[in-house]
């Protein structure tokens, strides 16, 4: 049995946030979206005999399986497809992981899948955008599925009273680590040669795999000493079935997950699409868009770490749900201002607030879900519900974002779809009970 509160194991667990967050920043939010936008615009200009610097980003289209489609629409819909796969895979595999005690093996597999897919972006060619989007698709599956098994260790390594603090520490290290690598990548691109942009994707893969070894060295392979029988796949599905029966009997956990579905959809959509939005809608000075966006992203990372720490501290005073409600209200205000801003300085101010509430809501949401779990050994299965809820929301968020732009031919209208998710999340948070009034009657002994 794993000893809760072991500092060495907790440090190793936190190290994975430091390791994997570089993918979410460099590939999902910063360098790849800018590289993708620039390379597709240059290809469009070349094919149409235009000056790339004078091409309106909103008019750019690329050939995608024979159809001329906006690059931002392709990107958002490919992400949605990746999240569909994650939302199906994580519950199925988590049942097997819980039954066999193999969370760590699944964590490793998806880590390596995500990192190697990221490395393959080194060969990205806008003329063959379908192959580049395959790398994004597989990288999305690797990154997000690995988090299911990573998060599932939190209730196993930490006492309930410490989970807010430890979850926040993970996010803090993730924000800071990804910021460090982003600065290194920018030094290569801006200080040496812009053609080294693709090297950034290789550095992400090496960083992710390399620092993850610190986690793998200390996390145990089989926390509860499971001894699976030969038909472990079928029994893994059966494990998930019983866990789901336990879950539907809960009241507080279930209602929190409903709220999480909506407000986190807004958070993740902002994370994934903010750079695309800002590159199109903010009136950057000539050739200043890339620099301006990078400054904004660094602000978000730095203040994200601050927000995670502040929200964890505030949760001790006013409670987790109240902290999340406060963050969600600020998110709604942010969406209103995002619709009307046009100037870089306005975007920097907005980015600062985004960083604070992004770090705060993510850290406290993860620890809140962990705290609300019933007594169980099936943590991966329970966190697969958390993850599937998150990914289904991200599917809707990115799809609504892309489809809204497609329908109205203006990405600014997509902000309304994001605001709607935050408003619904706020409403559902108001109905999360303070205590778990339903006693889960199913136990491990009853379904083993």
Which strands sit side by side, in order, in the main sheet?
Answer: 1-2
Helix tally equals 16
CATH superfamily: MFS general substrate transporter like domains
The class by helix and strand makeup works out as mainly alpha
Backbone shape: globular
Order of helices and strands: HHEEHHHHHHHHHHHHHH
> Which strand-content bin applies to the residues?
under 5%
Oligomer: single chain
CA radius of gyration: 21 Å
Which parts are unreliable, with pLDDT below 50 for 5 consecutive residues or more? 440-448
The CATH topology label is Growth Hormone, Chain: A
| CATH class designation | Mainly Alpha
Instruction: Please tell me the overall pLDDT.
Output: 85
CATH architecture: Up-down Bundle
Distance between the termini: 18 Å
Number of individual domains:
1
